[in-house]
Structures are given as C-alpha cells and as structure tokens.
Amino acid sequence: MAHFLERFYPFVPAPLQNLGISLYGFAWKRERLGGQFPRYVSEFRERDRWSPEQMGAHLKTELRRLLCHAFDRVPYYQRLWQKHGITRKELAQIEVDQLSRIPHTPKEDLRANADSFVAQNVPREKLNRYFSSGSTGTPITSICTADDHQKFIAARDVRSLGWAGTSIRSPRSMIGGRSVVPQGVSRPPFHRYNWAEEQLYFSAYHIAPANIAHYVAALNHHQPGVLTGYAHSHFLLAQMMCAQNLSLDYEPMAAVLSSEKLTRQMKATIKRALRTRAFEEYGAVENCVLATECECGHLHANLDFGILEIVDDDGQPMPPGVDGRVLCTGLLNHTQPLIRYEIGDVASWSLESCACGREHLPVIKEIVGRLEDVIVGPDGRQLVRFHWVALDLPDIMETQVVQEALDQFTVKVVTRNQLDREIEQIIQRRFCDRLGPVSVRLERVSSIPRSERGKFRSVISKISLPARTPFGCAQLAGSL
Ligand SMILES: [Zn+2]
Description:
By secondary structure, the protein is of the alpha/beta class. Helices cover 31% and strands 24% of the residues.
C-alpha cells in the first residue's frame, strides 16, 4: 500500500494527501507501537533508574550475546574476524572495556554492501529498509524488522521524549526529510496532517520568509504538544518568526530536535519564537547509538541502546575532555548488527557528572558533526540537508554541493564510472524541484579534499550564511 500511495501522492489534492498520509500513518503506528512495544518501554524505564553496576552487568551480557550472534550468523563479521583470527570463545568472554581488541567497522563497508551485515537467520520477508545520507553525501541502507523498530521507538519514547516531559502519544509536529508537500508547490498549506497519530508534518523545503506565517498559523491551529525533527529547520523557522515579530500563541511542552548540533543560540531563538525548551537528541539511521538531553541540560549516552566509544586513531579510548572518533555498537539490532561502527562524528566525554543522578549513562561534553553550510534559494528559502542529491544513484560515491551564486551550483562528484547525461539531468531536476530555476554544473573529481581533522564538507556556500554542524547521519530510522 505504501508504494501505491507514494506513486500517486504528488498528483492528488492536499485533502487526499492528508488521507493518504493518515492511512500510511495508521499502518506505521501499528508497526512501531504494536507487538512488544509496551514491554520494551517498561524495560527502558526500569533501566533508567539503575546503578552503574547494574548497567555494567547488563551491557556485558548483551555485548557477548550480540558478538556471538554476529560470529554465528553475519557474513561480514564472519569474514572480518576470521581474517583477524578472532575466536568465538574470545567473544563469549569479552569484557566491555576490552572492545578495542575487535577491529572497527568503516562506514564505507556498510555503504558498499548493507546486505552482508544482515543475520542469516532472519526471514527475508521481515526485513524493512531505510535509506539516509551518510556523512559523505551518499546514502546508507539500514535494515531492521518491526520488532527491532519497536525497541528503537521505545527507547526514544522513554529517553528522548520522556526526559523532555512528553511522550510518543502526545500530538506532535515534525519538520523532516519526507517531501510531504510536493516540491513544485509554491502555495500554502506547507504541511499535511496524519490523523492516525495527530501529527502535523511540515515541509523542510518551503521555509522562506514569505511562507512563515502559514507555518505559524498551522502550529497555532493544531497546537501540537511536542515539536520534533531537524534542529536547524526549527532554528530557521524561529529566526524568521523573530524577524517578523511572530511567536506561537500557545506553549508546546517541548521540542525534541535531532540531525544537527543544537547550540545555545539556537535554543534561545527557539525558546523566544516557539515558546518551548529545545532538547537535543543524537542518533542515527543505523540505530546503533542514542544520546539524549536530560532535565538538567546534559547529553547522556544511552548505553543500553548502543555502546558508544570515543577513540583515538588506533581505536584506543580517549580520556574525558579530549576529542576522539565515535564508534558505536548497537545492542538492539540483531538483524543488521553494527559492531564498533565508525559513524563519522567526533566527540568528547564530559569531565563532570550530571545532577540528574543517572551515573550509569555517561555524559557527553560535545558532539561535532561535519560542517555544512546553509543554502539560500533565489526566492529566499533556506535549505539544509542535501541527502537527496545522490539518492538511488549507486554509481555516485561522494558528492559536494557548492553554491557559487544565488542561482548557480557546482556539484563535485566522485563516481565509479563516467558520468552519463541521464544522471546529470536527474541531479539538475532535483535542484530545480527544490530551489526553483537554478543552473547546476556537474564536475567529476577523483576525490573531495577533507578539511581540518579530516572533516568532510558536503555543502559549501560562497554566499555568506553561517555554517552548521549536522551529525553523521541525517535522520533517525522510523522518524517519530
Ligand atoms: Zn543528566
């Protein structure tokens, strides 16, 4: 049904699109909040109050279980560990602080062959696939079952939304990556409504000064209790509201925002215009990591979701306060296990503990994603996230978007083969759909240079707009 709806979606009027979204929303709700979801929620709640010793024992058991499962059933790890002479016995007795004995998993390996990470005992008809941009502008395929999905959402319900004083059952709004409002549409409404979950879904691609009043009117009309989605899109919205002396006429319970780093300035602007506190959520489409902001304003690593390591170039742990590469071992996804997976972000542990008392969930001082500029279109709309440039174009390995002038773009591409005319036309059309009439020049390059500390800049604007720092992955799988 989903494919049928998606195919005809852009061509039907907005009320029918609302109906389509609601039908899809109903099925989506059953998948995520059905099955064992209530049990998983109570388990996450229970672990919320644990001591560090209880959590340590749990992590050891879960880690050993995951590693033995991967050894027995996952082709990628069978090959990798055989090459390194790692035995099942060694994995069955490993301690959490001995993880650095195991080689890390480069993101490129998942990108190149996502199916080699899938456990052989999972029936193929149960596999769901999610696509998202990786840190180098090329898509990642994340694979899980409905049951895995229920665990991920349970964790986010308890930790991301629960700590912010709200829940997945609250009416909510979303600004995210789905093109709910077809790109060519230039008239309001710039949102659609999912009755199944009382969810207001806004377009991230129509945030422009001329459209802001329509966003505000929709929020005031539906009054969602929690605002979710891209941090930077909410910041842009709030900034434009402030410039036009607009603010909401009610106070939402919270904004739980992800995909980009949420700075103090962004939080203050959101508080002023959207009249609520913004909480940071750090996750990934691969669902191997989740860090969430507590009541006291600190970002805690939810180790029972995934073990997060911060390491040096040799894979050894960094002391608190020192920046290192983030490696994640997802404990919930046994369908497509990721073990010491390099997500592409840099972070450091905090030197301080948090007053909230959750000593078993360590505090992250800061996460630094890659640098990405904001793009402004000829009509003033501002765009973030360019994962769509190379989506479903498997020949393209990396892209870098450079805005030369308001209506002129260069896209640098690293490809396996020669660039053909058809790919050029597809990319040109994608830009025009989202930004109106602009010219796009494709330039094939052998590699895209990294900036300081090996950071990749996937979007560069030569028009002076502030840079932002999105995290290694665009969006959490199974968006709220
Ligand atoms: Zn805390």
